[in-house]
């Protein structure tokens, strides 16, 4: 059995509205091995969720369209499978925790019914066995008194509990790949830590690989082996967590790191923000998409798109000035500061 679980090659996704085309994902490539976790980071609108939902072919079509690339899962290109084959893969081999748990849980069915539904859809089990398994899953994700909770409705659960239910549903079929789109963003830090612990525990138990989409680099450092940094639908940096953490290279990644609140940033200390905003993806982008916001940009950055280069082993960067031959000197955080307001 090959160790490589997923290989995404040059994935392109567009949305069409009239004569306008939004290039939401523009040539994303990465690989994921079994039991390995990859973090996808980037500002809002950079194409993280569109990439993730495309992997399951759940992009609304139209207006969306996977216009190019390959998604090789255990060597099979998911883009060539029939709808029926794809349904078998969803929830069986690959499952997803969506960005908004409230909209993904159905308010008119009890939580138990929704977990059992998912179990019965993919496993040949009796109603009684499905119920037993649902109770087990709720127990596993740390929901107290699961027998009683089974009959309750999503609105009777707290945000953290609902997120656990989503995880229980996603893991009820022991998927080989779990895609988690901001699974902890809406939660307070204590619950967030519990959910991450839970995911690590479940990963050990089920050997699941995880694609973790998050705004929080702390989460990436904690559970991921690789990082994919996205900007305006493009991957601008990709590498092992050690590389990206210790020697980040793209000026955009520097900006992301500098704008994170970390334990070393004391109250009232200043944090850097990235000036400006991402480009309009409906317009043709000439050159490097980050150039207009990059304090290191020179003429070439505005006229020629940089290619992704493996500058060091397992570390890829798309920047004209971060190559095998040349390196930028990372500036001190100086401009565009804002005060940290800690609650
Ligand atoms: N259904 C849709 N129709 C048209 N455009 C869409 C649709 N879904 C996403 N997009 C566009 O695709 C781009 C990428 O969106 P995506 O949701 O992947 O961002 P994201 O990185 O997940 O952001 P966030 O961090 O806010 O969740 C955005 O410009 C968005 O407007
Ligand atoms: Mg998103």
UniProtKB/TrEMBL annotation:
Pfam family name, one: ABC_tran
Major subcellular location class: membrane
Domain called ABC transporter: residue spans: 6-257
Membrane disposition: Peripheral membrane protein
Annotated protein name in UniProt: Peptide/nickel transport system ATP-binding protein/oligopeptide transport system ATP-binding protein
Gene3D superfamilies for the chain: P-loop containing nucleotide triphosphate hydrolases
Keyword terms, alphabetized: ATP-binding, Cell membrane, Membrane, Nucleotide-binding, Transport
Family as reported in the entry's similarity comment: Belongs to the ABC transporter superfamily.
InterPro entries named in the record: AAA+_ATPase (IPR003593), ABC_Ni/Peptide_Import (IPR050388), ABC_transporter-like_ATP-bd (IPR003439), ABC_transporter-like_CS (IPR017871), Oligopep_ABC_C (IPR013563), P-loop_NTPase (IPR027417)
Transmembrane annotation, as ranges: none
Keyword check for Membrane: yes
PROSITE patterns given in the database record: ABC_TRANSPORTER_1, ABC_TRANSPORTER_2
A GO MF term: ATP binding
Transport in keyword set: yes
Location of this chain's protein in the cell: Cell membrane
């Amino acid at each position: 059995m090959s160790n490589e679980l997923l290989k995404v090659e040059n994935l392109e996704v567009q949305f069409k509205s009239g004569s306008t085309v939004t290039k939401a994902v523009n040539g994303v490539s990465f690989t994921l091995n079994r039991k390995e976790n990859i973090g996808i980071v980037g500002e809002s609108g950079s194409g993280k969720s569109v990439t993730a939902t495309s992997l399951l072919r759940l992009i609304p079509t139209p207006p969306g369209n996977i216009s190019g690339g390959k998604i090789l899962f255990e060597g099979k290109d998911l883009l060539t499978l029939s709808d029926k084959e794809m349904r078998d893969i969803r929830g069986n081999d690959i499952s997803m925790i969506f960005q908004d748990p409230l909209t993904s849980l159905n308010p008119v069915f009890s939580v138990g019914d929704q977990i059992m539904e998912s179990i019965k859809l993919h496993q040949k089990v009796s109603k009684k066995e499905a119920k037993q398994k649902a109770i087990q899953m709720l127990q596993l994700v740390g929901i107290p008194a699961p027998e009683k909770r089974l009959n309750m409705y999503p609105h009777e659960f707290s945000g953290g509990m609902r997120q656990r239910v989503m995880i229980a549903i996603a893991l009820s079929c022991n998927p080989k790949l779990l895609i988690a789109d901001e699974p902890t963003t809406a939660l307070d830090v204590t619950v967030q830590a519990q959910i991450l612990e839970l995911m690590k525990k479940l990963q050990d138990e089920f050997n699941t690989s995880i694609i973790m989409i998050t705004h929080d680099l702390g989460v990436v450092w904690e559970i991921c082996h690789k990082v994919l940094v996205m900007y305006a639908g493009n991957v601008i940096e990709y590498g092992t967590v050690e590389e990206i953490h210790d020697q980040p290279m793209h000026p955009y990644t520097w900006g992301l790191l500098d704008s994170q609140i970390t334990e070393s940033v004391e109250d009232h200390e200043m944090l850097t923000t990235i000036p400006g905003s991402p480009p309009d993806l409906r317009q043709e982008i000439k050159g490097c998409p980050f150039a207009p916001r990059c304090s290191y940009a020179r003429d070439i950055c505005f006229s020629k798109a940089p290619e992704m280069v493996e500058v060091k082993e397992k570390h890829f960067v798309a920047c004209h000035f971060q190559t095998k031959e040349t390196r930028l000197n990372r500036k001190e955080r100086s401009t565009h500061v804002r005060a940290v307001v800690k609650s």
